[in-house]
Design a protein that fits this description.
By secondary structure, the protein is of the alpha+beta class. The chain has one domain (33-125): Microbial ribonucleases (Nuclear Transport Factor 2, Chain: A, Roll). Helix content is 21%, strand content 19%. The chain is built from 2 helices and 6 strands. It has helices spanning 2-16, 46-57; strands at 37-40, 68-69, 85-89, 102-106, 111-114, 122-125. It has a 6-stranded mixed sheet, with helices on one face. A hairpin with a 7-residue loop joins strand 5 (111-114) and strand 6. The chain is globular, with a radius of gyration of 24 Å.
């Protein structure tokens, strides 16, 4: 008997709530999309500033993969067409390989810095 009352009460409550169409419901951003912070030019490591200067001069680049398309597969940077972003290695003192630090350059001239191999990005503020 109590179960029937609870069900009628639940239905009555649900009918009194406003209807929000799914098309208007706000979707949460994908779990992979993290907020992109900012970093001042002067706060970048010296090697990152040197990499940006090298990009502006058009090279030559010390690593074969410098200038490769950055696919933004995790959608952490603003969405753009494929080929919009390019990636460049930032030398890491004492590292024998390319290391984890990168500069991402967008065709509109913006730069992003990551020191942990694409897990977090900060837009360079000049």
């Amino acid at each position: 008997m109590k179960r029937g009352l609870l069900t009628r009460w639940t239905v009555a409550l649900a009918l009194s709530l406003p209807f929000i169409p799914l098309a208007h419901a706000q979707k949460a951003p994908p779990a992979s999309q993290r907020e992109v912070g900012e970093i001042a030019w002067a706060s970048l490591p010296k090697e990152a500033r040197e990499t940006i200067d090298l990009i502006r001069r058009g090279g030559p680049y010390p690593y074969a993969k410098d200038g490769a398309i950055f696919g933004n597969r995790e959608a952490m940077l603003p969405k753009q067409n494929r080929g919009y972003y390019r990636e460049y290695t930032v030398k890491t003192p004492g590292e024998r390989s390319r290391g984890a630090r990168r500069i991402i350059w967008g065709k509109s001239g913006e730069f992003y810095y990551t020191e942990d191999h694409y897990n977090h990005f900060r837009r360079v503020r000049e």
